[in-house]
Amino acid sequence: MARETVVLLHSSGSSPRQWSALASGLADRFPLRVAAPEIEGLPSLAADVARVCRDVPAGPVHLVGHSHGGAVAIKAALSGRLDVRSVTVYEPSLFAFLDVPEASPKVVGKAIASLFHAGRAEDAARLYVDYWTSPGEFQRMSPEKRARMTARMGSVVNCFTALIGDDARASDLARLSMPWLVMSGRRSPQPAQDLCEIVAGSLPFARLHHFAALGHMGPVTHAPEVNAVIEQFLREVLLSARPVAERRAA
Questions:
Q1: How far apart are CA 48 and CA 10, in angstroms?
Q2: S-S: 8 plus which of 36, 50, 108, 167, CB 3.0-4.6 Å?
Q3: pLDDT band at 103, cuts 50/70/90?
């Protein structure tokens, strides 16, 4: 029997390093392989999924994704190209699930793209960081972090384009029968929280977990708290065919 692999998918403004602590913990405590592929921010989610499928070892997989990585995890599960045994997402940014054209992530994404294409990459990075965290957060970063974030704006713009223009719909999730953990932070922008309700409510077997004190970047800023919930869920999945379906507020 092929060994199972946990696939860790990072957010658009981050890198596989955001999952370093989780990857180490999983490797130490679970009989699992761990893969953390680079998501470059391609012009479509289908292209991101194809890249992930290419980089992941053959056999059963457990997908874990944050933000853009969560959207890639959803699309990978829908694609049928992987033997997916469970999916864990923290505020997946599949904005196509939001039917409202003026939803703030769509508006902000288009503004970020406009700034970037006008040669104002640092202003684009400022808008991106401050929207997903808090006003002024970009300026509080070190010059090195600001420079790294600014350098990622081309990839971020591609991610927004892919997320807004994707053709998946929440109703597609009804055919996914594997167990899911959907996580959200109560301090995140409301549309990100709404997306988690939509995703969890559209799945046959989903657990919805709220972090009262965390925001959208919870897996980065509060990794121990988020990782503990992920590990507990994976432990349940590995011990039983399917955890009891439930919706929990934490």
A1: 12
A2: 36
A3: confident
**Contacting residues for 28 by C-beta, under 8 A, at least 6 apart:** none
User: Among residues 194, 185, 178, which one has the least CA distance to residue 97?
Assistant: 194
Per DSSP, 124 falls in state H
Q: What type of residue is 185? A: G
Distance CA 115, CA 240 (A): 49
Say if residue 234's pLDDT is above 50. yes
Q: How does DSSP assign 84-103, residue by residue?
A: EEEEEEES---GGG---TT-
d(CA 163, CA 241): 32
Q: Which residue spans within the chain are E strands per DSSP?
A: 5-9, 33-35, 60-66, 83-90, 180-185, 206-211
CA distance 239 to 250: 23
Structure tokens at 156: 């971020």
CA distances (Å), 163 to each of 11, 41, 72, in order?
12, 10, 9
Domains, the chain, in order of start with CATH, read 5-97+169-239 (3.40.50.1820), 104-163 (no CATH)
The one-character DSSP state at 174 is G
- pLDDT tens for 156-168 read 999 999 999 999 9
Instruction: State pLDDT tens for residues 75-91.
Output: 999 999 999 999 999 99
The CA distance from 155 to 161, in Å, is 10
